Amino acid sequence: MSASVEHKEPPGAGRKNYGPAYSLPIGAWFTVFFLAPIFIILVFSFLGRGIYGGVEWEFSLAAYRSLVTPGVLRIALRTLIISVIATAITILIALPCGYYMARSKHQTTLLLLIIIPFWTNFLIRVFAWMNILGNSGFVNEFLLRFSIISQPLPLMHNQGAVILVLIYMYLPYAILPLFATIDKFDFSLLEAGRDLGASNIVSIAKVLLPNIKGGIFTAVLFTFIPTFGAYAVPQLVGGMHSYMLGNIIADQLLRARNWPFASAITIVLTTISTVGVIVMLVLQRREAARLGTSASRFSGAGRGAEAEALV
Asked: Using one digit for the tens of pLDDT, what is the confidence trace for 224-280?
């Protein structure tokens, strides 16, 4: 007697996949409000400059040729130097902050303190720093009152002021991804490394930092890209000798009305930002693959063996 066999369909079989329908609105949003403006800017960068502003609808490479003039190259180099210095100092400050937050029992309170500056308008925070660093600001008034100095210090309208304010503005963007990454780290590996004879500095350098590379890459990206295209900070606290590429874009749009040149600079900045994102994604994938290989290699081994291999 032959037994009848029932064929059960897998769960969800026969149901329609509504994923594309759900993703269609956000996809259309990004297409209309991100890709379309970038495409327009790209087209404008290859057009001629209009006499009274706007563009002349004729193909021209004049905007890109203007990018290699000595004045623009000097400002581009200044922008790169300021961005690299501000990013490096921001990461150096954010690392111990993120580490302390990850080990603290008051993470919610500390996160709130990090987020509080976002509740205040960007320009208000910049003007607050102007009141702190100005000739009649808090720092100079304090030093003058106690006769530490005889005349106000030039704390404003220089590259040091720009770097200081940029660090303050984008420090939370570096702390938050580092905290999120360090919070997932297994701190018993640090203890195992110290048990094997490594100092605290060596344990952090060879055990902690290699395992939080993803957070470091994200923090660098979140800091470098906005500082590289900064406009308000160098405009308000930097002065003419601290002009950056963002200031050139604004001047070309509002004063010179050279739309193709402003578009060309924007395309360059966007390209650099896109390359940075791609590099970060590639490095994160390689790091994830390396960690996956290490996890399979050390499966079944103790923490001491894993820490010893890392150290």
From this structure: 999 998 999 999 998 888 889 999 999 998 888 899 999 999 999 889 888 888 887
Task: Please give the residue that has the higher pLDDT: either 299 or 54.
Answer: 54
Question: Measured between alpha carbons, how far is 235 from 253 in angstroms, rounded to an integer?
Answer: 15
DSSP H helical ranges for the chain: 19-30, 36-45, 62-65, 70-103, 107-115, 122-133, 138-145, 159-182, 188-195, 200-203, 209-211, 213-228, 232-233, 245-254, 259-297, 303-310
**Closest of 231, 254, 252, 253 to residue 243, by C-alpha:** 231
Check pLDDT > 80 for residue 199: no
Residue 98: predicted pLDDT? 92
Instruction: Provide the residue ranges of all domains of the chain, joining segments of one domain with +.
Output: 77-296
- Measure CA of the first residue to CA of the last residue in the chain; give whole Å: 68
The CATH classification of domain 77-296, taken from the options 3.40.190.10, 3.30.450.20, 1.10.760.10, 1.10.3720.10: 1.10.3720.10
The β-bridge partners of 55 are 49
How far apart CA 116 and CA 25 sit, in angstroms, is 32
Task: Name the β-bridge partners of 249.
Answer: none
Q: In which residue are the tokens 């924007």 written?
A: 266
pTM of the model: 0.81
215: left (phi over 0), alpha (psi -120 to 50) or beta: alpha
